[in-house]
Write a structure and sequence with these properties.
The chain is α+β, with helices and mostly antiparallel strands. Helix content is about 25%, strand content about 25%. It has 7 helices and 8 strands, in the order H-E-E-E-H-H-H-E-E-E-H-E-H-E-H. The radius of gyration is 17 Å and the shape is globular. The two termini are about 35 Å apart. The C terminus is likely disordered.
């Protein structure tokens, strides 16, 4: 392992800058996009986030997608606080500064909601591409996920949203990893899982319409789900979510 300075340099390295309109539409590339085979969740985790992904870079990408999907489909300030509390390690960005929290705030404000979306508002979140920006040893990955976020309030809107996080493999529990109620999800966390690591938020990921030339140039690899192990049993799907938002709300979430 090269250490914190190397990890900070990976996180801070700028990514492709794209026009905001690229997140809303695009022409499919004439060339096949590279793919990423992503493992499935095998057990429930704390705060309702699916987990049980392997200690691999693809496993880190899958865990990040599960965290993002849970937060964005819920669009709830209490929920995002619970997820942040149980899925960040000591030294990670605080909840008020977490990009996912800010996206939830922007969505709720643009949609005229309170601290949680109205039950009539639906949000669907589907991972469509992933990227490994860098690794350091076998327990630290800078993972990125491109999401297809769809929301419905009174009109239908759709946007692509790219997001990156530092993730670190945690054996057992971190101070914020599995305390609290001590339910089954908390105990499951003790088996080892990817958690959001310490350090400032990484440079923003490019939010590109999936499968386009610009998405390929940005480094996105098309998401391909791998089949779960035969003995994995029923587990929540890390890729599932729910919602489509009004244009302004969706645009805020992608900013």
């Amino acid at each position: 392992m090269r250490g914190q300075a190397y990890r900070d340099s990976i996180a801070a390295a700028p990514m492709l800058k794209v026009d905001p309109d690229i997140a809303r539409q695009g022409v499919p590339s004439a060339h096949p996009a590279p793919t990423m085979l992503v493992p499935a969740a095998t057990r429930p985790g704390p705060a309702g986030v699916p987990t049980g992904f392997p200690q691999t870079s693809a496993g880190a990408v899958a865990q990040l997608a599960a965290i993002e999907s849970t937060v964005l489909q819920g669009m709830s300030i209490p929920q995002v606080n619970d997820v942040h509390h149980r899925w960040t390690r000591t030294g990670a960005v605080e909840v008020a500064d977490w990009p996912l929290t800010q996206n939830v705030q922007a969505f709720l404000a643009a949609a005229g909601q309170g601290q949680s979306k109205d039950p009539a508002v639906t949000v669907t979140v589907t991972p469509v591409a992933g990227m490994v920006k860098g690794v350091d040893g076998d327990d630290w990955v800078l993972a990125c996920v491109l999401l297809d976020v769809q929301a419905v309030i009174t009109t239908d809107a759709r946007i692509a949203y790219g997001h990156c996080e530092r993730l670190r493999w945690t054996d057992g529990t971190d101070r914020r990893g599995a305390d609290g109620a001590g339910g089954a999800g908390d105990r499951a966390g003790a088996a080892g899982r990817w958690m959001i690591a310490s350090g400032p938020s990484p440079a923003p990921a490019p939010s590109t319409w999936p499968g386009t030339d610009v998405a390929i140039r940005a480094g996105w690899r098309t998401w391909v789900d791998s089949a779960p192990a035969p003995d994995a049993g029923a587990a929540p799907d890390a890729a599932t979510g729910a919602a489509r938002a009004a244009g302004a709300a969706a645009g805020s979430a992608g900013s």
